[in-house]
Design a protein that fits this description.
Layout (H helix, E strand, L loop, with lengths): L1 H4 L4 H30 L4 H23 L1 H8 L3 H25 L2 H11 L4 H13 L3 H17 L3 H25 L4 H23 L1 H9 L10 H30 L4 H23 L1 H8 L7 H23 L3 H9 L4 H13 L3 H17 L4 H24 L4 H27 L2
Helix pairs in contact: 2-9, 2-10, 2-13, 3-5, 3-7, 3-8, 3-10, 3-12, 3-13, 4-5, 4-8, 4-14, 5-8, 6-7, 7-10, 8-10, 9-10, 12-19, 12-20, 13-15, 13-17, 13-18, 13-20, 14-18, 15-18, 16-17, 17-20, 18-20, 19-20
């Protein structure tokens, strides 16, 4: 990485970032794509709601392993560190897959969905079916993100994008074949397409990292500060908690929205809104690994990376504002996503509320990356805990005290929580770049 870190310019950052941005862009399109298919199948309201709930369950189960890409980008420097982090990743994958198995036990699942969340039986049954199909999802995510981090560290970001192309093609083929040639429920089409796609992407990521692994095995470089499992754990557990807390908010959002006014409509449009906003958020999230890889041992890349982040956040936010506050939102929700006129109208104001989210995402990605590169991961967890708390508090008051429509309360809570988290991280980030 030393060649690209020398005399770091906006152009060099852009060329390093763009394959990762393309990766996140392609991944972010899968949500709207699947939602659009489900919306065009029988019983779209129930199936969209079930898909949103099942996907939120899969996200919370995979949460502890998501940040392994940042860890492998930062830590895998030789064969010894590769072996330690690989074994750590495999153990974590086993654990989260076991948790997914526990979740799909009928007594456990229906207690959570019907007794705790209060989902109607029609939605709960569909959600259970989709969650079973998503069983391979968490482990495959951990496996491929570990090897993607190794590719990023070795300046092979294009290969990460190639893996995502494989994911999108396989997802599309699976979804289209099920859509055209079977009569399964829409939520089954969505869940099956996602599971097949992420599994094939995981295999592709491992194959594309093979030459790096062989090079590490042949290297005779003396290791002066070998990494231990204790060091890996100390470095990673705050990151795992960060993801767990951050994604763990989804079931709470589902719980509160399920108890709100116009609950089914809110559950139906929330994944459509979230997946659209994620198109822009994903571009910002991709910046985290860029900062970790390019910041340098003495933070010499901080100034150009900061300039790039400001430009990126401003451009992404302006584009989303253009969609949210013009008739383009109707075009997206009706023509692209396939929502009815009523549901499309229902989604317009929540999208306006979320318009600032891309800038907040670029900011928090930069803040987290600076702390990870300084191996000071604890403030990242604290910030996410604060964000989680604010989201739950806003949801509680908005729905139970002020009787907000569920999707309105959820989007307001997301924005409020992220702003407070950004503010908290200002001080520890300043300390890390001194």
């Amino acid at each position: 990485m030393t060649d690209i870190q020398n005399n770091l310019t906006l152009k060099k950052i852009f060329l390093f970032w763009i394959p990762l941005a393309a990766t996140w862009l392609m991944m972010s399109l899968e949500g709207p794509y699947i939602a659009a298919l489900i919306a065009r199948m029988p019983e779209p309201k129930f199936n969209l709601a079930a898909y949103g709930v099942a996907f939120s369950f899969a996200l919370i189960i995979e949460a502890p392993i998501i940040m392994i890409m940042s860890a492998s980008t930062a830590l895998v420097k030789n064969l010894q560190s590769f072996n330690k982090l690989r074994n750590f990743t495999y153990a974590a994958n086993f654990l989260i897959t076991f948790l997914m198995l526990v979740l799909i036990i009928p007594d456990v699942f229906y207690f959570i969905t019907e007794m705790l969340i209060g989902l109607p039986s029609e939605v709960s049954t569909l959600t259970h079916l989709a969650t079973i199909i998503l069983l391979p999802w968490p482990g495959a995510i951990g496996y491929r993100r570990f090897y993607q981090g190794i590719l990023i560290r070795n300046n092979l970001t294009r290969r990460v994008a190639y893996g995502t192309i494989i994911r999108l093609v396989s997802m599309s083929l699976t979804a289209i074949l099920l859509f055209l040639f079977t009569e399964v429920e829409g939520v089954v089409v969505g869940a099956a397409a996602l599971s097949v796609a992420v599994t094939l992407e995981a295999v592709a990521s491992r194959l594309m990292a093979n030459e790096i692994i062989l090079r590490l095995k042949k290297s005779n470089t003396k290791i002066y500060n070998p990494i231990t499992y204790k060091k890996v754990y100390k470095f990673y557990y705050p990151l795992a908690l960060t993801s767990l807390i951050g994604l763990g908010v989804q079931p709470f959002v589902t719980f509160f929205v399920g108890q709100s006014r116009m609950a089914i409509e809110s559950l139906a449009v929330l994944p459509v809104i979230s997946s659209f906003v994620f198109i822009f958020r994903g571009m910002g999230l991709s910046f985290q690994e860029v900062v970790i890889a390019l910041i340098g041992d003495n933070k010499e890349g901080y100034v150009p990376l900061k300039k790039f982040g400001v430009l990126l956040g401003a451009i992404l936010t302006l584009i989303l504002v253009l969609f949210a506050f013009t008739p383009l939102s109707g075009f997206w929700f009706k023509t692209v996503s396939g929502l009815s006129n009523i549901l499309a109208e229902f989604a317009s104001v929540p999208l306006m509320i979320m318009a600032i989210f891309p800038a907040l995402t670029v900011l928090i990605s930069t803040q987290r990356a600076l702390l990870v590169s300084s191996q000071n991961t604890r403030p990242v967890t604290i910030a996410t805990s604060i964000e989680f708390s604010i989201i739950v508090i806003v949801l509680m008051f908005a729905i139970h005290l002020f009787d907000f429509i569920g999707v309105m309360a959820a989007t307001l809570a997301f924005v409020a929580g992220r702003i407070i988290a950004n503010i908290y991280l200002i001080s520890p980030v300043k300390e890390s770049v001194k």
